[in-house]
Amino acid sequence: MSKHEIAQLKAKIHEQIDKLDDETTLQMLREAVESYSTPSQKDILDELSPEQFQRLSESIQQANEGKTLTNEEVKQKVREWLSR
């Protein structure tokens, strides 16, 4: 990517951020930028409890086996659960 393209990308990101007013979204963006811009020796997986790591491993296995739902399927299930 050229310097000009990088400058354009930064400008577009700045424009989009300037339009945001939601504090939670802004905090999440700040955390994401910080985590990508500061190299860390810490792996987030090291911070998981054994139960969390097990659940994550099971979820990854299910996804690899194609046992997933689309966003629309999840929305439909939630609607069904809430209508009970």
Written description of the protein model:
The chain has 84 residues and is mainly alpha-helical. The chain has helices at residues 3-19, 23-37, 50-64, 71-82. The protein has 2 domains: 1-36; 45-84, no CATH class. The model has no long low-confidence stretch (mean pLDDT 90).
Count of helical segments? 4
What percent strand?
A: under 5%
Which stretches are poorly predicted, pLDDT < 50 over at least 5 residues? Answer: none
- The rounded distance between the terminal residues' Cα atoms is 53 Å
Q: What would you call the structural class?
A: mainly alpha
Mean pLDDT: 90
Sequence of secondary-structure elements: HHHH
Give the helix level as a range of percent.
over 70%
Number of strands: 0
How many domains? The number is 2
Mind describing the biggest β-sheet? none
Outline, from the CA principal axes?
A: extended
Please tell me how large the radius of gyration is. 19 Å
